[in-house]
Amino acid sequence: MAPTAAPTATASPSATAIPSPKPTATPTPTKATGPSATPTPTPTPTGTATTQTSAPTPFPGKTPSGDANADNGALALLPDSNSAAILTVFNSINSYRASLGLAPVKYHATVAGLAQEWSNNIASREVIQHRANFWTDPRALNPNNGAGEVIAVRWDRDAAQLVEWWKGSPGHDAVLRDPRFNVIGIGITYTDGNWQTTPNRFTMWGVVNFFGYTTLPSGTVTKPGGTGTPPGTVTPPADPVAACEPGDKYQPPTVDLKSAAIRSGADLVSVAADGSVYSYPSLGNAKYGAARKIAQGFTGLKELFVSDWDRDGVFDLIAQRTDGQLLVYPGRASGGFGSPGVLGHGWQSLTLAVGQWCATNRLPQIVAMDGSGGLWLYKNSGMTYIRSQAAIATGNPAVRLSMVDYNADGFQDLLTVEASGYLRLYRGSGLATPRQEARPIVGAAWTDYTGLRSLQGVDGPGSTGVAGLGTNGVLEYWDLTSGRLTTPVSVGGGWTGFKLAQ
């Protein structure tokens, strides 16, 4: 039983997060043992989105160095030409439409870029998932007559069978035969999955975006390969510092977490002044169950992070201590945590965020900001000393750093809280370096929050958001599924004196 001073989650007040369009017919994306997909309905767009060695020496702050020993990571994309597959899918869709007396769809390179990026994204992460609000992306070119997205995967490279699968699924078939659509973009990605050894590892991933326009966008062509169409070779995202390069292929297991200390990515974790750690199970809709004490002795912390660091399917705790130690406590499916592993020393001066920054590496990584605003990426070496770092960007010095998919594009972004209170966005690209662009200010007065926590699944499968603990002891949650900050929901009060784990 938690002490009386432990914060207790309360019911949400009348203020609620602004929901994003919810596909009513879309099931929860799941891995399947055969080709599978999830249909997206065809909403009417309302506008455009605004847009060394293992010696225990202090590692942070050293000159960026390479790491010859690659770490476990993700299945990388294969740089094989997809031109023929794209043309096959395009022709198959139009042949089907012609058999129904429908006008053929045309092709646009910009829309194709949108589809290809998402195909690469989900293939890298090995998930079947729709891009939230894809029709509001500037690369959708302002469709005003409907939008749709279909996704399918295969163990072989028979692109025509992607279309056959869609035709056999009512939700997908409705998108293929929708008369409003006149422009599409196709993304095809290859991976080196082997269905004989790992049945759920697919080798071809396909995404098609459909849009309807009253006036065709400039650059529309009659088929792939026309003027303006990019080369058909799928090139894995270039990593300028090789910091994201994965090593061994790694497939995280599915673990029953009902007895684990932390049971979902939507759960909250806090640390009391006496070092006791509490977990609050998510009940959905930004509501939480009673506190459970899951650990003790966590004093002397600068920050505490929740992450499945070794990707064994169980959430771990990473402690950044004020004495400079960085420790990882492995979670156990049966409950509690194992003895800590030492990830490094000399970390006390850095501001950290932990998460899956690299889209092509399934192991979490650490992004750190130093006192001058420099951003550094640290590769995950498992439960041992971190031995590589890379400088990835420069920015404005900040007092807090959080990693979250802010704009709902499937890539992790960075939110920094500056001493002025400004909340600044560094958009991620799935690579080591953030996007090379101006860093917009997306909020003010954020020094009123002593902790930020990225959460997944709070409002349902696939949802993403961020929780903030205010100096007044009130915990709030912002849903980010729409790609921007929305009206916060109050999760509960009584958190004064507690530290919110990131």
Work out the strand percent: 25-35%
Query: Which ranges are low-confidence, i.e. pLDDT below 50, for 5 or more consecutive residues?
Result: 1-75, 227-237
Order of strands, main sheet, comes to 1-3-4-2
Report helical residue fraction: under 10%
Shape: elongated
The largest sheet is:
4 strands, mixed
Average pLDDT reading: 79
Number of helices: 4
Based on helices, strands and strand pairing, what is the structural class? mainly beta
CA radius of gyration: 23 Å
> What is the H/E string?
HEHEHHEEEEEEEEEEEEEEEEEEEEEEEE
Euclidean distance between termini CA atoms:
23 Å
The counted number of beta strands is 26
What does this structure look like?
The chain is mainly beta and 502 residues long. The two termini are 23 Å apart. The strands form 7 sheets. A 4-stranded mixed sheet has the order 1-3-4-2. A 4-stranded antiparallel sheet has the order 9-6-5-26, with no helix packed on it. It has helices at 83-99, 109-125, 160-167, 170-176; strands at 106-107, 147-154, 183-190, 204-211, 268-271, 277-280, 282-284, 287-288, 292-295, 301-307, 316-321, 326-329, 341-344, 351-355, 365-369, 374-378, 389-394, 400-404, 413-417, 423-426, 441-443, 449-456, 464-470, 475-479, 489-492, 499-500. The model is unreliable at 1-75 and 227-237 (pLDDT under 50). The longest helix is centred in the N-terminal third of the chain and has 17 residues, at 83-99. The relative contact order is 0.17.
Structure keywords:
mainly beta; four-stranded mixed sheet; four-stranded antiparallel sheet; 10% helix; disordered N terminus; Integrin_alpha_N; CAP_dom
